[in-house]
Amino acid sequence: MSRSSLIPALTLILAASTGVGFAAEEGEKGAKAAKHHQQVLAKFDANGDGKLQRPEREALREARFPKLDTNGDGSLSRDEFVHRHHGKDGRKAGTKEKGKRDNG
């Protein structure tokens, strides 16, 4: 293989392998999310119909509220809400800065 055709070939291989890595990472996140949803449903689906009705969703909210109310005052401040939904750095949970990868 000539040098002029080797570089595009290596570039193509690198691009393809990177895409596979990202797809695998997203697949793992999806699998974890699906498992979490199954666990939540199993715990809070009181009538076993595979759906969460309003009273079941209320029970879920009640169970999660103490984790959100970090100072225990019975209400959620803006900081508590933002911390929960956007993370400590203010970015929406699960997002990354443009051009940066999460390697951890």
Q: Could you characterize the architecture of this molecule?
A:
The chain is mainly α. The protein has one domain (3-86). It has 3 helices and no strands. It has helices spanning 3-44, 54-68, 78-86. The longest helix is centred in the N-terminal third of the chain and has 42 residues, at 3-44. The chain is flat and about 65 Å long. Mean pLDDT is 75; it is low at 97-104.
Please outline the major beta sheet. Answer: none
Class by alpha and beta content: mainly alpha
Mean pLDDT: 75
Q: Report the order of strands and helices.
A: HHH
Radius of gyration: 22 Å
Give the amount of beta strand, in percent.
under 5%
Helix content: 55-70%
Number of helices: 3
Total of domains: 1
Q: How many β-strands, per DSSP?
A: 0
Shape: flat
Q: Termini, distance in Å?
A: 38 Å
Which consecutive residue ranges, at least 5 long each, have pLDDT under 50? 97-104
Give the topology, please.
Blueprint: H1 3-44, H2 54-68, H3 78-86
